[in-house]
Amino acid sequence: MIRPFAAQDTETIVSIWRVASQKSHPFLSDAYLDILQKIIRKRFVELAETWIWEQQGVPVGFISVLEDDVTGLYVRPECQHQGIGRALLNFILSQRETVKLDVFARNRSGHRFYLRYGFAEIGRRFDDTSGHEIVRMSYAP
Fold first, then answer.
1. What is the CATH number of the domain that holds 103?
2. What is the pLDDT of residues 43-81, one digit of tens each?
């Protein structure tokens, strides 16, 4: 079930983000993830439109968007490969004509997921903060 984010979900989505990030971004340092986690908790949740995926009343994934940018799509590792990420993207795309997103080039599973979904690469850039290449992708039905 997809439902809107509520303030009491903050710690839950931060937890989902952290465990999913550690799995999909093993190349990022814990110190870098710690910095991002603080930013997500203190600022990001206020700015983004976030939708939660629940299973049996327990949040296991979420998607966040700012305008037409998917700024986060995370699913607990033990719940991945069950169609949750696809369902969350379908939900967002039912409300928008196009969406764009960034994915680390070294996040091969995430990159492949978006390519299989139908996203196309539209650019690449080096991120000075993380020290890694980021792929910009776009989807238009």
1. 3.40.630.30
2. 777 789 999 999 999 999 999 999 999 999 999 999 999
